[in-house]
Specification:
The protein contains seven helices and 26 strands. The protein is α+β, with helices and mostly antiparallel strands. The chain has an eight-stranded antiparallel beta sheet with strand order 1-22-26-25-24-23-20-21. It is globular, with a radius of gyration of 27 Å. The relative contact order is 0.12.
Length: about 425
Amino acid sequence: MKRYIHTGILVGAVLLAGCGKENYLNLTYDVNYWGGISTSITGQEIPDLPKKQTAALLKVCQQKPDMMHLPDRYTQHEGFNLYFLPASVQGREFQHVRFLSDETNDYLACQPIRHANYAVHQIKRSDYPFVNWSKQPVKTKSTVVRFGPVPKEVLAQQKQENEERKEIKELGRYLFPSYQLSLPPEGQLVVYMKEKGKDKEHTLFETTESLTGSELNLAFRDSPTGGVQQSAIELMVSGDLVGFPSAIQEHVNGQTYQIERKQLPDSLETGQTVPFATVRKQEDGKIVQETSIYLRFNKTYTKPMNYDYGFLQASSTGYVGFIHQSPKQLVDSDYKYVSTIPDQLAKKIAQELKETEVMEPQGTKLKQKKLTLMRQGKSQTFELFERKRAKKLEIYVVKSGSKTGAKLSGSTSQTLSEVLNQ
C-alpha cells in the first residue's frame, strides 16, 4: 500500500511541476485603437462616436453570440460603423454594428469585415440609451443580389462626365449600358476576371456590405492612361461607400476592343457565379487578348484572389508589434516615437507568451517604452523590464497593473533589445 501512495505522490509532484506554464497573451478590442461613426436610418453619417459608446459596442461584439444569422423578419434601428484607427498597421478592419428588433426581442448585430455573417446578441434596450430606437417597417431578410435599372440621376452623371471629357482629356468615357446591383445585408459580392487560357483569378472588387444593404453601379469606361496614345478599358464600381475603377485591358493606337455583355439573371443567389461580360482586344483583325468577368456571391467572407488594391484588402492575419509610449503615438502614426517590430519577432513573442512561466519581473522598468502586439483589430500592451547581466540579457513583459510578468527567451530578448536601442 505504501508503494502505491509513494507513486501517487511522485506523479502529483510531476504534475505540479508543470503547472508553472500559462497563457500570458490575451488580445482584446482596445477602445484606444478604435473609433466609431453613427449611421442614421436615412444613411447620414455622424462621426466621432464617444469612446464610452464605442467601448460598449466593442465589448458586446467580443462575447459569444446568441445567433449567427439575422432574424428572418426584423425592424432596423440605428447603426454604427466601428473602425480600427491605425489603418496603416494592418489595413482594413471594421465592425458593422446594427440594432434590430423582432416581435419579442431586441438585438445587437455585429459583422466583422472579414466575415459576412452577423453575430447577433440579444440585449436589453434600456442598456443603450444613446441609440435611436425609432420604428421602421419590418423587413424580410434578403439573401440574394438583385439586378435592376440604373437610377436616372446616375445615368445623368455619367452622361455629364462624357460631355466634360470632350474638354478635359483626363476623364474617362462611359460605355453604356450600365448596371445596378442591390446587395443583401449578409454575404460577400466578388467581381473577378480571368484571361482566356489561364486558370488564375484576379479580383477586381469585393465587398461585404452593412445590414442596410447597398446599391452598386457597374459601368465600363474607356480612360486615357498615357495621353492620346494609350488607354484602358476599366470597370467602374460606384455606390454609397465606394467609387473607383479597376483596369481590365490596356490598348494603344491601332488596337481596338469589343465588349460582349452577358444576359444577367434577375438575381444572384448564395454560392452562385455568373458571367458578366467578356472584353476582347483586337489587332489587325485578330483577337490578341480575351478577358472574361464574373460575379460571385459568397455566403461568408473569402479572401480575394490576387487583389491589387492594398488599401482595400482585408487586414493581415499575422501579428504585428510596436514599441511606443502612448496609444496616441501609434494612432497618429507618429513614427518619431514609434518603432516597428519585425513581423517574425512579433510572431515569436506571441508564441512564447502563449505558454510561459509567470514570475516577478527583474531589472529596470523602461518607463518611456511599451510593447503593443496587434492582430486583426485586437491588441495587448505590455510594460517592459530589462535586466543586463555579464553575458546575458533578459527582458520581461508585464501586463498593465500586474506585479508578475513573463520572461522572454534569450534569443528573443536579444532581438527585441536591438529594436529598443534603435
